[in-house]
Write a structure and sequence with these properties.
The protein is of the alpha+beta class and about 425 residues long. The protein has two domains: about 210 residues, Enolpyruvate transferase domain (UDP-n-acetylglucosamine1-carboxyvinyl-transferase, Chain, Alpha-beta prism); about 210 residues, Enolpyruvate transferase domain (UDP-n-acetylglucosamine1-carboxyvinyl-transferase, Chain), CATH 3.65.10.10. A four-stranded mixed β-sheet has the order 21-22-1-23. Strands 2-14-16-15 form a four-stranded mixed β-sheet, covered by helices on one side. The model has no long low-confidence stretch (mean pLDDT about 95). Bound molecules: ligand EPZ. Ligand EPZ binds next to helix 1, helix 5, helix 6 and helix 12. The site of ligand EPZ has 24 residues, from helix 1, helix 5, helix 6 and helix 12.
């Protein structure tokens, strides 16, 4: 098992090119199943979750080619509608295949995704919506889920929460449904808009992504050759900017969509960082001296402050002067990583959905364990700012969302290495 060792105290400085978004490429890869042709995707991040998704696509009968950040999927003929259990268990978000496989094949067998470190993560909204469209859901024994529908019917669906995954699954299932599907209270994340853009390039009649109401006209068949560039990863950009802030450094990130990271930049400015942005997706951050606490941050669906940046900002606030309160409104237990921050000397008190963070002068390096992706990113940020050496195990979680993290950070001055434990 590899671990990351960090010697804290170096100020980050330099340029990082931000890769394509994990949470955009995964649903787009699922959407390629709807195309009885070849789909070409550019700017795909090289991440373990992407590789797992590619294994699932080839298990279903797709031909896959990958050259660096370009992925070519030929889904002309599929040979199966069973998502291999070992692969589905490796990646919770394989549930995103549900709507696409069901839409294309008329049935799908997938293992029920378990909860994880950040919460139960039920899929009731996904299943209720598919049943509304005429699907039959059988919760088979030993955790397998069978969903079937000879022909899905377009209909009006109101989500009781703007779930990203449920919105994506309905968009994909609606592509081959009879008639129009309207999704009300749909998620507005940029990744939903990117999925819409890809579906439109496939020839799907879809509109409204980003507005909260999405309309999809079902098609009989889709045979096309879409070429699509995946949007940049707003959470990776925010993570590296927060790391630069925590080390009192300065960083240039390129290839970003400024609007997608607006709420993250707003918080970094309130903490005391100097932020500038330039045409062509360039954002610079400078952080001098002691940063200051933020009295209250609440995570919320886009365009609010993203839950996927909550651990990273808590880590940064743990060394800002003053007391901050962070409220996590999206997931019910997304503060488990703070146990590890306490080992580094942070002063954090979690009360239900709220974390009270009293800034300390300095963190001290320690042995810590990542147990989820963004919690692991928070530990890296804390280790970069801490005095002495920090050793982070559970690096596999971090590799699911950050490409070659130790190489990227070393290039901008971090003393970080990946060693085999
Ligand atoms: C997506 O997860 C992202 N993952 C998550 O990113 C992100 O945190 C989340 O959206 C919110 O932005 C991918 O895109 C692969 P949700 P998803 O459905 O779709 C509850 C990361 O670190 N809910 O919007 O699973 C759910 O429990 C990951 O990159 C139901 O109750 O999130 C949660 O409390 C972590 N029933 C809330 O809704 C349902 O049927 C939001 O979940 C579905 C969701």
């Amino acid at each position: 098992m590899s671990i990351l060792t960090i010697t804290g105290g170096s100020k980050l400085s330099g340029i990082i090119e931000i890769p394509g978004a994990k949470n955009a490429v995964l649903p787009v890869l699922a959407a390629t199943l709807l195309n009885k042709g070849i789909s070409i995707l550019e700017n795909c991040p090289e991440l373990d979750d992407v590789f797992t998704m590619l294994e699932i696509l080839s298990a279903l009968g797709c031909k896959i080619e990958r050259e660096g950040s370009r992925i070519i999927v030929d889904a002309t003929t599929l040979s199966s509608s069973v998502i291999p259990e070992n692969l589905a268990k490796r990646m919770r978000s394989s549930i995103i295949m549900l709507g696409a496989v069901l839409g294309r094949c008329g049935d799908v067998l997938v293992s029920y995704p378990g909860g994880c470190e950040i919460g139960m993560r039920p899929i009731d909204m996904h299943l209720r919506a598919l049943e509304q469209m005429g699907a039959e859901v059988d919760g088979l024994s030993h955790g397998m889920l069978k969903v079937s529908a000879s022909k899905l019917q377009g209909c009006e669906i109101l989500l009781d929460y703007p779930s990203v995954g449920a919105t994506e699954n309905i968009m994909l299932a609606a592509t081959y449904a009879e008639g129009e599907t309207i999704i009300r209270n749909a998620a507005k994340e940029p990744e939903i808009e990117d999925l819409q853009e890809f579906l439109k390039k496939m020839g799907v009649d879809v509109s409204g992504a980003g507005s909260g109401v999405i309309r999809i006209q079902g098609k009989k068949e889709i045979k096309s050759e879409p070429v699509h560039k995946i949007i940049p990863d707003r959470i990776v950009a925010g993570t590296y900017l927060a790391a630069a802030a925590a080390t009192g450094g300065s960083l240039v990130v390129t290839g970003v969509e400024y609007d997608h990271i607006g709420s993250i930049l707003y918080c970094l400015k309130r903490i005391g960082c100097k932020i500038k942005h330039y045409q062509g997706g360039v954002v610079t951050l400078e952080s001098q001296g002691r940063l200051k606490a933020i009295d209250l941050i609440r995570t919320s669906p886009y365009p609010g402050f993203p839950t996927d940046m909550q651990p990273q900002i808590v880590s940064l606030l743990s060394i800002c002067s003053g007391t901050s309160i962070v409220v996590e409104t999206v997931f019910e237990s997304r503060f488990r990583y703070t146990e590890q921050l306490l080992k580094l000397g942070a002063d954090i008190n979690v009360q239900g959905r709220a974390a009270i963070i009293r800034g300390v002068e300095k963190l001290k390096g320690a042995e810590v364990e990542a147990r989820d992706l963004r919690g692991g990113a928070a530990l890296i940020i804390a280790g970069l700012a801490a005095e002495g050496e920090t050793r982070i195990s559970g690096v596999g979680y971090i590799d699911r969302g950050y490409e070659k993290v130790e190489k990227v950070l070393s290039k901008v001055g971090a003393q970080i290495r990946r060693v085999e434990d």
